Amino acid sequence: MVETHDLNEVAPRPDLFARWRDAGLRLLTVNVRGDLFFPAAEMRAFAGASRAAGVAHTHLEFDSAHGHLGCVADTAPFAPLLRGLLEDTLPTVPLPPEPLGAGDVAHA
User: Fold this and answer.
1) How much is the pLDDT for 98?
2) Average pLDDT, stretch 32-58?
3) CB neighbours of 96 closer than 8 A, spacing ≥ 6?
4) What pLDDT does 93 receive?
5) In terms of domain of life, where is this protein from (predicted)?
């Protein structure tokens, strides 16, 4: 069972962000609002910090009646963003610091 995802065990955040930015890595994070295992507020802050460091990070939050399992049961809200990441069509510039809501479009 996963108890934590602590990237600080890998490297300090500024170092991670610099590595990701310099490598041109694009991040997509998705949170279900109300998820108690992976609180959206924590990922929202992480996404904002990575974008402030120049990382191209898209963050989406959506509501789901399935709670934590919403990212498995309700894929429609983020399928276009995931497809864009896999097809290399996500933007190469950082997005605004606000998370996208379900139904919002990150890019044309």
Assistant:
1) 54
2) 89
3) none
4) 46
5) Bacteria
Cα distances (Å, whole numbers) of residue 37 to 71, 90, 97: 12, 27, 23
Mean pLDDT over all residues of the chain? 77
Rounded to whole angstroms, how far apart are CA atoms 96 and 2? 31
Q: Say which residues have a Cβ less than 8 Å from residue 53's Cβ, sequence separation at least 6.
A: 13, 14, 17, 18, 21
State both tokens at 26: 């694009």
The domain limits of the chain are 9-97
Output phi, psi for 30, to 5 deg: -130, 130
Is the torsion defined by CA of 11, 15, 18, 22 positive or negative? negative
Of residues 105 and 39, more confidently modeled: 39
